[in-house]
Prior knowledge:
Low-confidence stretches: none
Order of helices and strands: EHHEEHHEHEHHEHHHH
Number of helices: 11
Oligomer: single chain
Largest sheet: 4 strands, mixed
Number of strands: 6
Amino acid sequence: MEGKKVLLVDFDPQASLTIGLGYPQPEDLPVTVTDMMKKVVEDAAISPGEGILHHEEGIDLMPSSIELSGMEVSLVNAISRETVLKEYLESVKREYDFILLDCSPSLGMLTINAMAAADTLLIPVQASYLPAKGLEQLLQTVHKVRRQINPKLKIEGILLTMVDARTNDAKEISELIRNAYGERIKVYAAGIPRSVRVSEISKEGKSIFRHDPGGKAAQAYRELTKEVVRNAEKRRKRNLEQLR
C-alpha cells in the first residue's frame, strides 16, 4: 500500500502466515523455505524466484510448513548453521524493498538464523504478564547475536499487540514495558488493539486492510507501517552519507 515491493518469509513451522494468506494446506505446497535452506546447505543452485508465491494483494510470500521443524534439527550439524537463511536471502534481496521474516515465539536455531539475516528486529509483545516476562530473555539473545554473529542488528522497536484498553491488566503491562525498556528501546506509542476482525482474517486468506479497512486494527497497522518505512528511509540516507 506504500508502493514498496515486499517479500514475506514465513519462518515458523506452524506456518500461520502461510495459512493466513490463503494456503490452508501448506504441507501440500511444492516448495517452502525448508527446500531453499536445504539447497543452501547442499550448495545447490537456486533459480530466480523459485518457490515464491504471489498474493493477490500485491505481496510475495516464501511459505513454510511443519517440515521446517525438522530443518531446525538438521541445522545443528550444518556448516555456518547460523547463516543459512541469510545466504538464501542474499539470492533474492535485490528484488525487494523490504523482506519481512515472521518467526515463531521461540529462541531456537531458526530464530537465530532470522536474527543473523536481519537488519532490524521488531518485537511484538502481547499485553499480558507471561509474554512480557519473556522479553528479557529475548533481549539477552539479541545481545549475544550482535556480539557473535550480526553486529549490525538493531531493534526497530517493541510493539504491544492484542491490547484491550478496557482492562487494567493490559494498561499495567503496557506501563511496565514502557517504564522498563522505554529509555533503551523504542516502544511504539500506538499498540495494536485486540479485535475480533483480526482473528477472522486467518480463515479468510486476506489482510486486515482487505477484511476490515476502516477498523481500529487496520488503522493501527497503517500507522506502524508508515513509521517503519520512515525509519528505513532515514537509515538508508545515513548509510549513503557514510559511504560518501
